[in-house]
Structure formats: C-alpha cells, structure tokens
Amino acid sequence: MRGNIPALAAVIRARRTVVLAAAVAIAAAGCSSSTTSTTTSTSSTPATSATASPSAAAVSTSQCGTSPGVSATGTPIALGGIVTDQPGTSFTDIANMAQAYFTCVNDNGGINGHPIKYYIETEQTNPAQIAADAKQLVDTDHVVGIIGNTSIIECSVDSSYWQKLGYYIIDSGIAPECYSTPNSAAVNMGPRYSSDGAVQYALTQHVNKIVFDQSNVPGTGYIAAGPSALAASAGVPIVQLTENVPISDADSVAIKEVDDAGPNGAVVLNFTPPEALVILQAAQKLGLEDRVKLWGCSTPCNTDFLAQSLGPKWNSKLFVNAELTPPDVTNTPTMNLYKAILAQYGKAVSGGIGSFSQMGFTEAEIAVHALESITSGTYTVATVNAAFKAVTDFNTGMLCQLWTYGSYSLHIPNNEDYTVTPDNGKMVTAQGCTQISAVDPQIAAYRSQAGTASLAPTS
Amino acid sequence: MPPWSDFEPFIVSGLALGGVYALSGVGLVVLYRATGVLYLAFGAVGAMGALIAWSLGQVGAPGWVTWLVCIAVAALITLGYGVLFGPALAKRDPLVKAVATIGLTLVLYGAMDLLWTTSGGEARSLSLPTDNGGFSIGQIQVDWTQVIALGAGIVITAGTGAFLRYTKLGTAMRAMANDREITATLGVPVRRVEAAAWLGCGVLAGIAGLLLADLVALDATTLTFLVISSLAAVLVARLRSITLTFAAAIVVGLLHDLLTPITSLTNYRDMTPFVIAAIGLLVLSRRRVMTQSREEA
Amino acid sequence: MRAALTRPQRGQSPAVTRTRPDRRQLVRWVVTAVLVLFALFGLPQLISLYYVDTMTQVAVYSMVTLALGVLVGRVGLVSLGQVAVLAIGAWVAARLLFATTQPYPLILLEAGLLTLVAGVLIGLPALRLRGLYLALITLMFAGAITVVLATVNFPNGGTGFLGYNGSLLHIPPIRRPSIASGDPAYYRYSVIVAIIMFALVFVHIKTKPGRAWAAIRRSEPAALAAGINTTLYKLWAFALASFITGVAGGVLAGAVHYLYSIDFPTQDSITLLAVTLMGGVYSLWGAVVAALLYQFLPALLNNWGVSADWLIILFGVGVLQVLTTSPAGLADQFPKDMARLGRALRGRFLRGRFRPPPAAPAAPPAAGSTS
Fold this sequence. Notes:
Distance between the termini of chain C: 24 Å
Strand content of chain C: under 5%
Radius of gyration of chain A: 24 Å
Largest sheet of chain C: none
Radius of gyration of chain C: 23 Å
Distance between the termini of chain A: 87 Å
Order of helices and strands of chain A: HHEEHEHEHEHEHEHEHEHEHEHHHEEH
Number of helices of chain C: 13
CATH architecture of the largest domain in chain A: 3-Layer(aba) Sandwich
CATH class of the largest domain in chain A: Alpha Beta
Helix content of chain A: 40-55%
Strand content of chain A: 15-25%
Oligomer: heterotrimer
Structural class of chain C: mainly alpha
Largest interface: A-C, 60 and 53 residues
Helix content of chain C: 55-70%
CATH superfamily of the largest domain in chain A: Response regulator
CATH topology of the largest domain in chain A: Rossmann fold
Number of strands of chain A: 13
Shape of chain C: globular
C-alpha cells in the first residue's frame, strides 16, 4: 500500500493538471470573446428578407449623420443602456442595434462633431445586479442619458433612482413602471397594451368568450387588467390564466385553453416566442387549432421565425398584434436606412431584421434627434434629458404615430398598432393602424394628458 | 369540481406526459443500475445532441443523419465522462458521484447557451416525421411520436431489465455498480464492461433527447432541468426497480394533467412530481436499518 | 507548536483542558481581524458603488454558503434546496417589513426563527433518509416551494396574508433600517450581520454540537454506538442552517428592495452547491470564497463584457475538480498551493547560499491532496 502513494499522487497531480488546464483554456478563450460576438451562430436563420430590395442598396448609411463621411473626434457623449441577457431571454439585439446606429452616426459627423459612446450593461433579472448596473452607468461611466433599456424588471427597480437624478429614459418597456412613471417613455407598447391590441382584434371578430393566457413573470395582474377592462366593456366573458415558464407540458395548456374558450371563443396568448411556439405547436399536434374561432398573440409572436415554424394551418387563424411597422412590406427611406445600417454595422445583431432591432433603431434615432437639437453645445445630464423630454411629434418611420415624450405623469406614446397574421411562412398585415381602446384606464389617463398623436406619414 | 367529460382529454395528454417522464426516469434508473451513478446530466446530454441535430438540419442534412449524430454525440460525451471520471470516483459514495454529474451538467448547460444563443428572439423546434399522422382518441389527436415515446419507455424497461438480469454482461455491470474492486478481483474486464455500460447509457440519453426535444421543447433550460421532475418517479422506485419507475412516471404524468381543469389547484399542478416523490420516499422508508459504515472523505 | 497536553488543574475535567493559543493561531486571528476591519471601513472607500452593491450580495450569500458548508462539510448532509430556504426567509422578512414597523434586527431575528421552524419541519421527516436520498428529497422540497412561490409571489405591499397585489402600477420598495439606508451603510450592516452568523457557527463548531457533527460525519453507526443522539444533532444542524439562511434572506430583502420569484429558481441551488464545494466546505473561509465566486465573479465578468455562461462552465469544471482531486476546495487548496510555491521559490532563491538541513525533506512532499 505504501508504495502506491507516490504513484497515486502522480496520477492525482496529472489529473488535476488536466482539469485545471481545461479550465484555464476555457477561461482564456472566454476572455478573448465577448457577449456581442457570436461566432458560430449556426442557429440564426436570419430572416427571410434577405430580399435586399434595390432601393435598400440605393440608401447610403451616411444619411444617419449630419456630415457624411466625416469621423467624429470631439469629446464623447456618454449614453447607457441596461438589457436582460440570460438563457431563454435575451434583449441584447436591441442594445446592439442602437450601438450600430450610434457607430454610423459617429462615422458621419457625430453630434456636432462629438462621437457617442454607448455603454451597455447586461443583467440576469436580479434586482441587486440591476441596481448595481444603474450605479455603474452613472457613477463610473458618467453617462448623461439612458436609452435602450429592455428588461423584465429594470423599470421597477431603478425608477426612483432615475427620478432622483433627473434621467428621462427612452426604453422598450416591459414592467409596469415603464408606462406609469414620469421619466420613462417607451417606443413599444409593452405586454399590457399589446395584449389589449390582440384582445381588441378578437373582439372585432365577434367572439363570444376570451381566454387570456400569459406567462407567470412579474406583473401578471397589471397586464391582465387591460384585457379584463376591454372584455368587460364589450360584455364578453374573459378567463384569465397564467402558466409557469418554461412550459414542460404544452399539451395540457393547449387543451385547457381550448376547452375554456369554446368553439366561438378566442385564445389570446402573451408569451415569449419559444413558449408561444410550444403551445401553438401542441395545439396543432392535438388537432385543436380549429376548435376555437381564432387565436391571438401579443407582439412577441411577431417574428418570421414563428411564421415559418408554425406552418400553413395557422394562416389567417393566428392574429398577432404588431407594435412596429412591418419591415418586409415597407419601402420608406427610414426603413431602408434601418436595413442598410443593420447590414453594414449590425454584425452583433443576431436576429437580423425584426422587432428587436427595429426597437433599438427607433430608440437610437430618437436619442440622436434629441441630441442634435441641443444648441448650447454642452451635453450634461440636465441638457440631454431636457432634450429627450422635449421630443415632440417625431416621425420615427417605425411606428403608426408620431412619437412624443413630453412632461406627463405617465407615458404610452406608442398606442396605435397593426395586426398581422402568418401567411405561408411570413407575417402579413391583417389590419392597419388601429388605436388601442381608451377603455383601458391607463390609456385613457395618458390620452387625457397627451391627447391623441397624429398618424405618421406613410411615405 | 368539473364534470367527468372535462377530464377525459387530460387522460390522454397525461399518458403522453407520463411517457415523457418515463423516458427520462427509466433512463436514469438503468444508468444507476449499470454504473452506480445517478446521471443527472442525462437531460443536458440529450439536449446538446438534439441542438446539434437541429443545427445540422438547418444546413440541410437529411433527417436520419441528424438523429444518428445526436445519438453519437450523446454516447461520446457520456462515454468520455464515464471513462475519465468513473474510476476516480468509483470508491466514493453514490451522492458524490451524483454531484459530480452536476459538474458535467453545468459545463454542458453553459456551452449550450453560448453556442445556441437566444438573443435573436428565436424559437427553435425539432420535429420528427412521426409527428404527422396518428389517430384520435375521443376528441384528442395522438401522434406517432407520443406512441413511440411510450413504447420506447416500455421496451427499455423490459429490455434492459432482462439484459441486466439474464446476460453475462448485464450481470457484470450490476456487480461493478455494486462494488468495483471486488468485481475486478473476480476477473471481470472492468474497464471494458464500464465502457460498455456508459456507452449504452449514452445511446439511451441520445434517443431520449431526440424524443423529448420533439415532445417538450427544443430549449436547453427546459430539457436540462426536466431531470428534476423526472427524479420523482426515480425516487419513488428508490433507484432500484425499473418497472416501478415506469409505473410511477405514468402516474405522475396522469395526475399532473388531471389537475389541470380543477381551477383551485391548476396553478399548483407543477408541484405534482415533487409532492409524489416526497410522499413516496418518506412513506416507503419508514423502517431503515443502517447496514454500512463507509468512511467518507 | 506548544504541546496541547497540560495537566488538568483541580476541578477541571480533562476534556476541557485549555491550551495556550500558539503563534500561528494568533497570527491567523490578527489577520482575520485586520481583513474584517478593512472590509468594513476600508473597502467601501476604494471601490465604486457598483462593487459596493456587489459586495453586499457577497455578504448575503456568504451566510448562505456558510449554512450549506455547515451541512455538507461538518455533518455530511448535502442539501440541494438552500435557495428555496433563502426564499422563505426573504418572504417572511418582506411580509413583516411591509406589515409592521418593527426595528430591522428584530425582523431579521423573526425571519431567521420562522425559517428555522420551516427547516425543522422539513428536516424531521427528511432526516430518516441518508446520503443521496436526502439530497434528492431536499431537491424535491425545493422544487415544490419554488412552484408555490411562483403562484403566491413575494409580498409587495398588498394586503391579506400573502401581501401581494398583482395589479400595482408602482411597486413600493422594501425598506431598509434607518441607520443604513444608503448603499455603503447597508453594505456595512450586512457585513456585520454576516460576522455575527460566522461567530455563531464558530461557537457551534468549537463546542459539543461541533464534536457530535464530526463524529457523525466520520461514521454515523459508530457515533450512534458511542451514544450520540444522531437525529437530534442532525436536526440541530438543519435548524442552524435554516436560521442562518433565513437571516440572510432578510438582509437580501433590504438589499434588493424588490423580490421576485423568478430570482429563486431551483437550478440555482445546484449552482450554489457547486460554488460551496469549490470554495471549500471544511473551513469558514471557504464560505467567503464561495460567495465571491457566486456573486463577485459574475459582476466582474459582466463589467468586462464576458458572458455569464463561461462562469457556469467554470463552476461545472470546478465541481469536477474538487470532487476528484481536492475535496477540501479552494480555501484549503489555495494556501497549500501558495505554500508549495513559496517553498519552491525559497528553495530556488536560497540554492547555493544555504542548504536546508538534510533531515527535513525525507517524507514525500505533501503527496498532493489530503484524503
């Protein structure tokens, strides 16, 4: 036995070296890459519209800035953004697209010669981390403006902090505080108002019952209140359900929804694309898709991935609320600029053309528009956020309406939307710009302060 | 309490869910009987194989090639783990061996999220040709994949049970799982038997991974941590009886889905596997005698 | 090293013979005291608010890894449900903080005690099992609690027993103690609470429970045969671990201001076990190392733009490494490796100048790991 010890020790040391070497190798490899570069993305079948229409090629990205071709070399203007990035939920595309827009602007004159430096913080839905990220942006990175925040809970966690410091955020909201506080204005509609849109469409099709099913993440009561109000006002009974995600048993979910809705009812879903896909595919496998009058979904379902994966049985069966202008069928200069910037500067945007990158583009666009309006030449927290707040009736080229920030106690500037439906692998428009009904008390509260914004010109 | 007709469709879907749990659960128990290790990386390995199969399918490889690759990848990873870490941990408590497989699970889980990101808002799905086609029971469609999953569960239960009991190789595996040193002194070619056990288990994990990716979701998180719910059936059978695992899994699936139409309980139905496991374990272990006194590090 | 055996004085039982602390122990105490003082007063001045917030999380989770280390390292019980226990503690603390105006220390105590009761209730039936089965049943309990939490949610200022109002447009934050409302002050507050918990464990280890646990970990049948009430002491360990984790939950509630059930998933318990093993379950420092791995490292990598997935892979590799080659974890291995490095450097440096006496290196050098 004694003689074995040196041999055993040698084996153990060798094994430990192997394991440690592996760890070092992995760590070293990790340090050299960053979140933004996905090298082997065998996963992204980037959409569909690689139909680079001839007019897209004609648009030069230099139109994003005021001095085409001139690199900005002044003192940088620091902006920041916080986005969720965890297994199953990742909004980095939004921030990366904003970054792409800023890079384009920096290559073409910057903001009066000042380049924009954009700090992106990622978080994993951990309130402590989110609060820390906010402090990092303010205390260490000294950002003067916050744009691009997209997080399940960031608005709730940081809202009072931003208010205290005087930051007026331009974000793609999800949490209730993104739409109910004075200093957050979103370019999207968020789960509640988007679900309102989907339910509203179902009601226009004269269904006699609504089943509203959503994922059990923070804010379900707040989200459910909108559809409840709409259904009550139309005199249609509504069943409110929630599901724990990730869903491991989609069959029972689909059966329950269909049973509760009945043959003349509608099932409206509010889930992220993977979960919605799983439920809809289960419904199809079980042969249930025709057992209700129609299916609805809030805006996360608006992706061509979903349309492709679902197949033709869902053509004109599933109606998805779309809070942004459909990129495939729109040929305006702004839309083409978006596609051009994505192609040239958007290597880190793994989803390609779609609502995520559209949102990032829109937020950056608004921010740049606001910054360019600052005449004093000083870019401080006070001046930049005053400029953000002052944005009024801006045509983003991505929304139904003109976009306004304003000095209101709450902000829901995007409150008019499309409805799309899958058509053989692509999402096509089923209904044009329609206002979200003021039966939702929050919408009513907003419109009483801000009025109704005009429709954006379509050319 | 809803009327009986409301429960009917959930019986069918419950059986299908039971088949899902059975596939994982039986796989786990077979591995345990053959290698002495509770292979908690079962789900992660299958998920990785399924994601690789999906990626190959995206670039145009024919279906059967992708399935073979999935099974091969799962088998290789499992074999590699078994050969590298099996001997080192052979003398340790089953708990230590199970915790070590947690290490493998974390490595695979992190790798999967790196390689197949979710940043594009993508929704991946895997479908097998057996998805199209099936038959109706009442108002519910049952597709062939669900039948295959259930059938695979039965075949694996019966087949491996017989294999482990009646064949020489199977008996050698069981002996090794029990005590590696003594089995070695009996002249059994330990390394080869061990490799065969791990390889076989890897193949099982690959097949289960394919079927589960089709039946449940092609999502790394869901598939990796599905093992936690599948452990319920495994625990009720106390990691010993493959048949009991199968039966318990069916019961868990049925009960889970039958709770769906009961409004007051429906939000809690995901607790079903855990509650059954806890009750099963605690009720079945009322009288225990300490038979061993192994010193642990 | 001074001899540990001194003749007992009259009236003193041989078992409690005091020994004079030797130099090495004194040095260790002084170093610990210096580090603690630095952590309390020096650190917040040197680092940005981002890292102050991160270190608060480290303090909170060091209590959780401490509790888990007691269970795994001292008694040999593996719990795969510690995050669920933390959630219970946080829930109780949040409910009390919203519903009452009691002072913070009292609320922490209540959270700890109620979590202790929950832990004992779970432990009583569960402790009939052993080893792998015990670990798995804690996982099952954790899974069940997670599902319940997903449905009842954390208190957010609403009314009723559950205190949850799902339709709120503005969720009120969980309050902090009036003396520690700012981030650096709350960081100091959590470090002090953590030190108290560490002291609590230290006292346990040095007295009767610690000895009983050591005997049980070594060999439970032998401990039983020696007359130790193993069930009582195992339950005591469960109770202590639950109490500490419950207090940690209370501190967490004040740190984050907002609690969500999605922040306490079952799989986090698995990661927690991984880092606790990596840090080292046999020493109190291991708990601190584990908490640094669990909270500080991700924050650091986040700042550098490295994906958190690499960390998950590292933890997996770490678990394998710990279990196969160095069971005592980093806290034990690192000083040993450093010592070995020091010896190697010294040897190289001193070669030719001074040869160490030939008697010393006869035995094989440390033979790698301790078994």
